[in-house]
Amino acid sequence: MNLPNKLTLLRILLIPFFVIALLVPTGITWQNWIALAIFVIASLTDLADGKIARKYNLVTDFGKFMDPLADKLLVCAALICLISLGRIPEWAVIVIISREFIISGLRLIAAGKGVVIAASKWGKVKTVFQMSMIILMLANIPQLAIVTNIVMWIALVLTVVSLVDYVAKNISLINDAK
After folding, report:
1. Which of 44, 159, 136, 141 lies closest to 82, judged by CA?
2. CATH number of 3-176
3. What sections of the chain are H helices per DSSP?
């Protein structure tokens, strides 16, 4: 269990604290900012674990599988919470979560063939925009509503583009699975 893998597990462990901070009424007027801080910290562990793993040659199959899963769990938890707060349309969350399930299915097919599908460039850019969108939505600053909307649309476009990219690059796995 190396440092990057520990950071990935920390990201997963932070999710319930994030949800509680965001959704459980506490009477604390700045609890939204606590949730935002937890989300930012969790997001930074994603950046850190990848950089450390590559720099010190600590890339593992566990990390290749669990890192994207931890990202999906964090993003999905945040998006579902944001629906309940009325800050994101349900259909947008359905698009994002559907992409995550499709990619996870593709990774399972690949794993069955002994292939590990690492995150692509499009997938990484998509993650940055999704995390930025969530941060803006968590901050919920009315003066940034237009920026938040633009970032949401960019994140949605990148969600679809990255899905098409993964499928196109791995179409042989899909064809072989028939």
Report:
1. 136
2. 1.20.120.1760
3. 3-23, 31-55, 61-84, 90-112, 121-139, 145-169, 171-176
Tokens at 99, concatenated: 């992409």
Q: pLDDT tens digits for 6-43?
A: 999 999 999 999 999 999 988 787 889 999 999 999 99
Query: What token pair was written down for 43?
Result: 């997001």
Task: Kindly tell me the sign of the dihedral angle through the C-alpha atoms of 154, 156, 159, 164.
Answer: negative
The Cα 87–Cα 107 span in angstroms is 31
Rounding to the nearest 10 degrees, give the CA dihedral for residues 64, 67, 71, 73: 100
CA distance 47 to 8: 10
DSSP character for 170?
A: T
pLDDT tops 80 at residue 177: no
Token pair, residue 69, equals: 């899963």
CA 159 to chain centre: 11
